[in-house]
Structure formats: C-alpha cells, structure tokens
Amino acid sequence: DLNLYYNDLTSIEVSKNKNIVNLNLDGNNIETLDVSQNLKLQNLSCSANRLTNLNVNGAESLVTLECIQNGLTNLDVTQNSNLEYLHFYNNQITSIDLSQNPKLVILSTDNNPIRNLDVTNNIELKNLTCNNTSLTSLDISNNINLEELFCQNNQIESLDLSQKPNFESLWCRSNNLAHLDLSQNPYLKQIDCASNQLISLNV
Q: Which residues contact 62 (CB under 8 A, 6 or more apart)?
C-alpha cells in the first residue's frame, strides 16, 4: 500500500514498485501518471490532481479506478478487463471504450462532454451515473442487472427499463423523455423525472 494523498507532488515514478496493490494519490498536483508496469495494482485513486495523461494500459489486475476532477481528455481502459469500479467524473473526456470491461459494476461519468456512451457489453453493471453530459440517447437494454440509473441534465429521448428485475432508482430529471414505462420494475423505490416532456408515465 502507498498513500500519498493531499500533498504537493507534481510527479511520481512507480514503475519499479512492482508489488503495489493499492495506490492513493488524491489531492496533489500531478500532471502525468504511468502505472503500466504495475501488474499487481488493484486499486488506484488519483482524483483532484492536474492529470492530462493517465496510462493504465499494463495494469491488468486493476479493479478500482478513481480519477475524478482532473483535466483528462482521454482515458483508455481497454486493457483492464478486471475493472469493476470506474469513476472519472469532472474531466473533459468526450468518448470512452468500455467494450473490454465485462466485469464493470459501477460507472460514474458525470460532467464530461460525452455524446455517446456504449454500455451494451457491461452486463454486470448495477449503478450507472451519467449526469450533466451531452447524451442524446442511452441504450441500457442489455444491462439486466441494473439497479440504479442517474442520467439527469442530458437530452435523452427514450429509456428502455424492461428486463431489469432488480431496478430500484431512476433519476432522469431534465431530459427530453415523452414516454416512460416502469411497469416491469416491481422493486422501484425512487423516481425523479421532473422537467421532461412526458405525455405518458406507467408505474
């Protein structure tokens, strides 16, 4: 374990620290981070830095990645097939390929200018948060394990919430939804669908 959060680091070199499993660098001033040589790394938190470049391409054991509130415009996680928890909100990322992350359970993409978010291969996904992006559509038809969806302040026109037996929470305020069918979600506990264009709602 290596914890260096809330210091004044501007750079760090960990390529020779082959046994690191948990690395926390939150709240520094780091601009570039390369953990591609850290094959045993499972949990990486590098939020609230100044990152413009993050290389996780060799970190094949990575389970949790938190890189919140940085200056990232790109994030490549195609080589992180064991990733379960991914949080990268408050960046400048416009697109991301999640097709190689079949174990993903929790995904947070808030406050990024993402126009297309493809989660069709993320069958294990339980919690999806994508508020304040630029989405006009969101295909969640394959996400049968989904329990919570937060997609407020987008331009989404339709949502298919069928075939989700454990679904509990929907927060879709401020979109362009005209129809919303929740009749197949018997465990639904919370709905916020204010400020849409609803003409039909089936609960």
A: 41, 42, 43, 44, 56, 80, 82, 83
